[in-house]
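Appendix B, Record 12. Input sequence as logged:
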Amino acid sequence: MNTAAEKVKLSLKKWLKDTSHILFPAQCLICEDELPSNNLICSFCEPELLYTHFEKYNEPTSLDQLFWGREQVSTTYALLFYKEGSSTQQVLHQLKYNNKPETGSLFGEKIAEKWGKNLITENVDLLLPVPIHAKKKFLRGYNQSTMIAEGINKLTGIPIAKNLSGKLQHTGSQTKRGRFSRWDNVSGNFTISNKIKQYKHIALVDDVITTGSTLEAFIQAIRKVHPTVQISIVSLAVTK
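Logged structural output:
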C-alpha cells in the first residue's frame, strides 16, 4: 500500500473513531458517567478499585491459603478483592452481563503489569481460561476468562489455550451456593484434551474466585490427563 493510501486509511479510521465517540460516548464502567475519551474507568472511580496488592506480599496470601490441603498450586494471583456492592462487583457485572468483553482485556493487561514478570519467571508456557458451557458462551458471545487471558497475553506473549478444555453441563450460577454445593455442581464436569501433555507449566485464568471449588474440580480434571503438570492460578478477583 502506498503512503497516500495509508494516510487516507488512517484518516478514515480516526474519523470513524471520533464519530463513534460522538454518537456513542464512552461511559465509566463503574459510575457510568460519560468519559472524555475511549477509556473504561474515570479518574474518580479508578482509586476506588479494591486492589489486593498481592504482588507486594512476602507471606502467603489469602488466595494461596484457599488451596492449602486441597490441590498443589505453584503460585496464585488475584488483582482485585470482591465484595457485594463494591466497584469490583460492578466491573464483573459489566464483563459478564453487559456485553463488555473489552473489560476483561483491560484488566488482563493490569494483571500482566503487576504480575506478568512472575508468570514469565515461573516459566508459564500456557494460559488456560476456565471454560464455560457452549450455551452460555453462545448467549454471552464470549468467555470472560478468555478475554482476561487476552489482556495478559498482550503484555507477556504467553500463548492462550484453544480447544484444550470444555464444560460438559450448563450448571447455572454458583453465586448462592455454598462450598460443598458448588463442588457437587462442578465435579466431573470438565473435559481435557490429551494435547495438554505438551505443556509443563500452565496458568489457569478465572474471573472471580469464591470458594475455589470450580478451580479445584478443573485442576483435578487436568491432572487426570497430565499428572505432572505444574499449575498456577490467575484471577481478576477473589472474595474478601
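The chain is about 40% helix and 15% strand.
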